[in-house]
Amino acid sequence: MATEITTTGKIRIPPAEIEYATSASPAHTARIFTWQGELYRSIPQSSLPMWKQLTEEGLLQELIHERLFVETRETDLQLEGAALVLKHDRIPFVSYPYEWCSAAFQSAAIQFLELNIRLAKSGLATSDAHPWNLVFDGTTPLFVDYGSFVPLEQIHRADFINQFRAQFWYPLQLMTSGHGRLARTLMQEYSQPIQEDELPGLRYLWRRGWLRLAKSRGHSRLGRGAQKLARLNRFHLQRQPSTEIWIKGLERWKRRVERVRLPRQRTFWSHYYAEDYPDHAQPETWSEKQITVAKVLEELAPATVHDLAGNSGWYAQLACRQGRQVVCTDNDDLALNQLFQREQSSNSGMSLAYLNIVNPVGPHGTIDARGSRLYTAVEQRLQADCVLALGLTHHLVFTEMFDFPFIFGALSQFTRKDLIVEFVSRDDEYVKTWWNDSYDWYTLENFCDIARQYFEEVDVQDSSPAGRYLVVCRQRRNEP
Ligand SMILES: C[S@@+](CC[C@H](N)C(=O)[O-])C[C@H]1O[C@@H](n2cnc3c(N)ncnc32)[C@H](O)[C@@H]1O
Question: What is the distance in A from the centroid of ligand 1 to the CA of 22?
Answer without folding.
Answer: 35
